[in-house]
Amino acid sequence: MSRGADGAESVAAVRRFADRAALVTGGASGIGRGVAERLAAEGALVATLDQVRHDPVGSEGRAVALTADVTVESQVAEAVTRVVDTWGRLDVVVNAAGVGAGVVPLTELDLDVWRTVMSVNVDGAMLVSKHAGRALAAGGVVVNIASVNAEQPAKGMAPYCVSKAALAMLTRVSALDLAPRDVRVVAVAPGLVDTPMTRPGVTGVPETLRSMLESVPLGRIGRPQDVAALVCFLASEEASFITGTTVSADGGMGLRGYPDRPGVPPPTAC
Questions:
Q1: Over the stretch 204-234, which tens digit does the pLDDT of each residue have?
Q2: Active site residue 258
Q3: d(C-alpha 147, C-alpha 31), whole Å
Q4: At what angle do helices 224-235 and 30-41 cross, to 10 degrees?
Q5: What SS3 class is residue 98?
Q6: Which of 178, 147, 158, 172 is nearest to 30 (CA)?
Q7: I need a labelling partner for 92 at 20 to 30 A (CA). Which of 8, 48, 80, 206 fits?
Q8: Do the Cβ atoms of 27 and 33 come closer than 8 Å?
């Protein structure tokens, strides 16, 4: 890769996914959008899927934007079929769709909130992996977006932490189930990343952000592009012997305890 005048890496000359087809859930914004943009920049045909209408990533004929709910199996199956019908193949799937529930003590947690988080973060990833697993070409890859909270508990964040821990285990089991199809399954565990999900209660609140950054050894907030770079490496041929594991992109946050933070309104999407 080359570097521009601002020190940022350019992916223009890197085409690890030339003419390979990718499906990215949660692709309207946040980490999902960052991953979709990176895949497109590296030559992929990119289908983004989200529950809200959004613009495709890339030029006509090389990108499609799908509107679907990952918790509804018929919609997931239709989306996977659409990608295969459009490009004749499916090579990379990224499960980035996710929601949180703010900070709520367990004794005050509403069951419907718990079920919503589990449904999107766990059921959604399972359904996409189920149907994509049948369609992925040999050498295909599923990348799940977990979290530092898959291993690091956070006070008042039971639904999110438990759902991400479940997603990490789903990654391991899926890797075993899909290996005979020559399909790899890996997960990425982001730390503190600036997205629409974190902005209302963390990255957009200066006092909270300062407190959270004390738990990040590298001393800065992450960007969707930081996560996207790792996702694309793991989905590439360079990582062809890596499966069933979760790799962190957290600035070292997992090395320290997760800080407490005050209750905030529940966000809607990552």
A1: 899 889 988 999 999 999 999 999 999 999 9
A2: no
A3: 12
A4: 50
A5: coil
A6: 147
A7: 8
A8: yes
Contact by Cβ (8 Å): 130, 174: no
Residue with tokens 């800080």: 259
Tens digit of each residue's pLDDT (9 = 90 or more) over 152-181: 999 999 999 999 999 999 999 999 999 999
Reading the block at residue 85, the tokens are: 């019908």
Query: Using an 8 Å Cβ cutoff, are 190 and 221 in contact?
Result: no
> Dihedral angle at the C-alpha atoms of 63, 67, 68, 74, nearest 10 degrees?
-70
Taking the C-alpha atoms of residue 29 and residue 181, their distance in angstroms, rounded to an integer, is 31
The predicted model scores a pTM of 0.91
Gap between the Cα atoms of 239 and 215, Å rounded: 29
* CATH entry 3.40.50.720 includes domain 12-255: yes
Residue 37's Cα: distance from chain center in Å? 13
H helix intervals, the chain: 30-41, 73-87, 111-118, 124-135, 158-178, 206-213, 224-235
Hey, what long-range contacts does 67-73 have (CB within 8 A, 24 or more apart)?
70/25, 70/97, 70/120, 70/123, 70/124, 70/125, 70/127, 70/128, 71/119, 71/120, 71/123, 71/124, 71/127, 73/127, 73/131
Total H helices, total E strands in the chain? 7, 9
